[in-house]
Amino acid sequence: MDYVSISKQEISVEEVAAQASSPDCGAISLFIGTTRNHVQAKKVVYLVYEAYEPMAVKEMKKICDEMRQKWPIKHVIMVHRVGAVPIREASVVIAVSSEHRQEAQEAVMWAIDNLKARVPIWKKEYYEDGEKVWKENRECPWRNSSP
Fold first, then answer.
1. Is 62 annotated as a binding residue?
2. Which end of the chain is less crowded, N or C, counting CB atoms within 10 A of the terminal residue's CB?
3. Pfam families, alphabetically (predicted)?
């Protein structure tokens, strides 16, 4: 089963992990991306995420399909939050279950790298000094291309 979602609500890590659970799997690997309180020397107050939701969901489903071609996995759950995300709260949770841990661990690492590089979700950082900055993901392919 694959489940992908863009959510305006706080993400329950426990619910995501439970959705990935299966009696025939011995592993569930999780990636939980949270808002940290700083970027370099600047103090972050919160983040705001925006998404082009129809395209984001479509691309997340493609990532699930590609994962299934690479690894023998059972369930893939991907939830990304939009709107304001306070410090320490999850902005993205990915859970992958498989019979053995190696497949789930490799798949979840690959999934977050591809989600950040391919899915149309944008992040704005709000700093303690009042400054706001839209941020690019380092994984975005256009960051490393020459003009």
1. no
2. C
3. MoaE
Do the annotations mark residue 116 as ligand-binding?
Answer: yes
CA distance 51 to 8: 11
On average, the pLDDT of the chain sits at 94
14 is in an annotated binding site: no
Do the annotations mark residue 75 as ligand-binding? no
Instruction: State how far the Cα of 29 lies from the Cα of 102, in Å rounded to an integer.
Output: 9
Residue 99 assigned ligand-binding role: no
- In the chain, the domains with their CATH numbers are 2-130 (3.90.1170.40)
Mean of the pLDDT values across residues 95-124? 98
Spatial strand order of the sheet with 90-98 comes to 2-7, 73-81, 90-98, 27-34
Query: What's this model's pTM, rounded to 2 decimal places?
Result: 0.92
Please tell me whether 42 is known to bind a ligand: no
